Amino acid sequence: MSLYRTTLRRGLLDFHIGEAVPEIAFDVPRYMREMAEAGMQTLTFMTKDAFGTSYYDTRIGKKNAKLAGKDLLEEAVTEAHRNGIRLIAYYNVGLNSYVAGANPDYRQRDKDGAPVTNAFGFYDLLCLNSPYRDYVAAQLSEIAERYTVDGFFFDITYVWPSSCHCDYCRKWYVEKYGQTPPVSPPPGSADLRRWQQFQRDIRADFLRFITGRLKKLNPDLEIGWNHAGDLAFAHMEPDERADYLTSEFHPPIYLYGSLLAKWKRTKGKPFELMMPSEMGSWGEWTLAPAATLRAAAAITVSGGGSISFGHVPLPSGALKGALPSPVVEAIKEANDFIREREEWLIGASSVPDVAVLHGVHNRRMFEATSLPNHADDALNGINRMLIEGNVHFDVLSERDLVKQLGGYAVLAMPDQAYVSPEVEEAVREFVRGGGLLIATHRTSLYTEEGVRKANFGLSDVFGVDFDDTSRYSVNYMADFDKGVFASVPDMPVLVKGTNTPVLRVRPSAEARVLSVYMEPAMETKTHRHVYHQHAHPAIRTDDPAITLYPYGKGACLYLSAPLEASYWKTGSPWLRRIYMDGYKLLRPKPLIEVDAPIGVEVNLMRQASRWIVHLVQVREEKAAGSKTFMEEIWPLHNIKVRIWAKPARLYLAPQLEPLPFDEEGDGIVFTIPVLELHAMAVLEDVQG
């Protein structure tokens, strides 16, 4: 079994020091001892930094001048093995001022031909399609052949947004497409779609080339790169070549870490989230609170991944040579937390139940057109709503959905404007066979080119037909079915925060209308307005806002507003309650039901016949406009759990404390007495 499947405690030595400091002092033996004592199982160790200098005796590149007589990588390999730590070689691919200065033709260039010289505010960015790739391959091969490393981690394998128009890319574009690359392709054009695909191809071709080169040298090397399997990149094609998936996780943005885990765990590969142990981001030289590190660890491992804590020893000055002891202690505390729970974490996978579709091709369609793009807001919004609603769920790509949808009970499609015919048919068959669907706003209304169709591709499943769009920038959901939306006030609820209007739809005779729209008294302008923002609800309509429609053995809840994106933008609790009340109507008997406050995340994982219910207490809050770091954990008490499965025994882990339960039909009901940061209820030998 691979290294990344059997270990959870990792570290990233993000040692971008360069040569501006007076010296580089690094006590490697002490560092490795401390990391071993802190519980590290793998370390990703610097070999070449963002400046282009190497930290080993390279015969090809430029060795860091402040390391005369020292080979940090050789020393690290020796000391890591002595301390039982496995070593992954970090290599910064795209940033290299040394090579850029000597070879200006290797630089990435924008549409005006200007080189990218201030990437991330500081660095020279080189083209992965230029002969620089052979320099990179030679250095990586040198490391693989001369040093006993277990794998590689590549950083900055990016094509800058406006790039690359270097001579090498222009030549390759002509070879591929028979025309010169466009300078300013208009949104919605074939030229823009082709150009964006070309940018993805540059990266994919480089990763194909470099992984192939290294695997020939040693097929056992484990290779990954930053943003492999990442939502932000949505770059699925090269990630098939990665042995493990990895992304950055920056607390106190806790919800994004949860979202990454729910996406990555559906890909069939081990994954890690990399968290800077510093305040917010890399290079701040100030420790985040220990509770924040533990929270990041709990989110990651309960979601099926491993956590890698980034850290940097101080290279010079009064504290030179080592990590400050509070950093080591905080990492150890988080790793101890993981180690106590590893028996119930290693090899665990998500129990399929609720799936959320995040269409990669839908995202690309938006990026290539002028359509209002709420793909990220919709995904972030539904992630927040379902976590706050204590719902266990996974996030699937279109490719995963076609392969895996049959194992799920519920599918949510948050404003998936473009849905391929293959996915449409998979969704249709899913609902026809008894699946439950929640779809919102523009789902299936657009072609791959971003052209609006005459009707929803899934209109037969929704039970509504597209009619028109609202002419108002805000709308109000009103006249709620009181038997369904008991937690929503009996008054119109505002939908705003996006630049897409709600849709007007015509319901079929069998569709049950659960809410309609009220329009504002007027469309607000500077010369025509009421009060400070937008006009009040004034005009009743018959336009459905929410419908429920039976289809085959299943049913569809359709909401014609961009509800998830609006929730992400506004935080209106009524929008979340509308969504969750609709979910409960659609699915009155969920697989797992947790009666907990909205800050408790639920993950249901399994190892063979063992099921593990994870509860993680995490709240994202703001104080005076800034994110708040978690410093303290306040206990919650008596959290009731109902699950439709019957175990031979039930206990709390890692305490091994038996939990009493009552049988209820085909399931059980039990209470978790106390939840601090994290609790695990373990169901052994599950039947059901």
UniProtKB/TrEMBL annotation:
GO MF term list: beta-galactosidase activity
UniProt record, GO biological process: carbohydrate metabolic process
Gene3D superfamilies, per database record: 3.40.50.880, Glycosidases (3.20.20.80)
InterPro entries xref list: Beta_galactosidase_Trimer, Class_I_gatase-like, Divisome_Glycosyl_Hydrolase, GH, GHL6
Beta-galactosidase trimerisation domain: residues covered: 353-450
Full protein name: Beta-galactosidase trimerization domain-containing protein
Record lineage: Bacteria, Bacillati, Bacillota, Bacilli, Bacillales
